[in-house]
Amino acid sequence: MIKLGITGGIGCGKSYVAHLLQERGIPVYDTDREAKRLMVSHPVIRRKLTELLGEAVYEGDVLNKPLLAGYLFACKDNAERVNSVVHPCVYDDFLRWTKMHECSGKETVAMESAILFESGFDRAVDRVLMVYAPMELRVRRAMERDHASEEQVRLRMAAQADDEEKISRSDYVVMNDGISSLDIQLDRILQALKE
Asked: Whole-prediction pTM value?
């Protein structure tokens, strides 16, 4: 089984590329969605977040997102503390999910993660596909999608790893500029993975 990591910066179109792979029959593990699920359901995460932030971090089975966000953005060390709790559980959950798909005969699965390299999730995959788009297009897409100002989007982008670094660490780069055919690019990559 081949495990393909999908990464890229804000507004590059990672989720759309993941959707196109799903249409081709490749299961995709969305780390953002699964991290949110695990933060509520995983007993280790619940215990450790409660130790970090107190009982108020959960209201029954609901995560107190404003409290967590306030803690996360208060300082870089806080974000690292939360990530050190959540990321290992997401990593293990991906490996469990992968085994399930391997048992069902899938030859390829994928993991979508904006922070694939930063989180260490790249260690769980065999190949990495970087989705790239020009900066101005990414800013415009993120502003429209998130109903955010240009300044807000650029601040979020500045907090992410540099595109050039991600490209240098990736096996494949898909250009998502609205001109180049994603279908043709993905078909070539999938063919290369089979070979």
From this structure: 0.90
| Helix H or strand E encompassing 43 | helix 43-53
Whole-number pLDDT of residue 132: 95
Which residues does the chain have with pLDDT short of 50? none
**Intra-chain end-to-end CA distance of the chain, in Å:** 13
Helices (H), 54-181: 65-74, 76-103, 116-119, 135-146, 150-158, 163-169
Q: Which contiguous run of DSSP H or E holds residue 28?
A: strand 28-30
* Interatomic CA distance for residues 43 and 148, integer angstroms: 34
Stretch (H or E) spanning 16: helix 14-23
State the pairing for strand pair 62-63/58-59. antiparallel
Alpha-carbon dihedral sign for residues 154, 156, 157, 158: positive
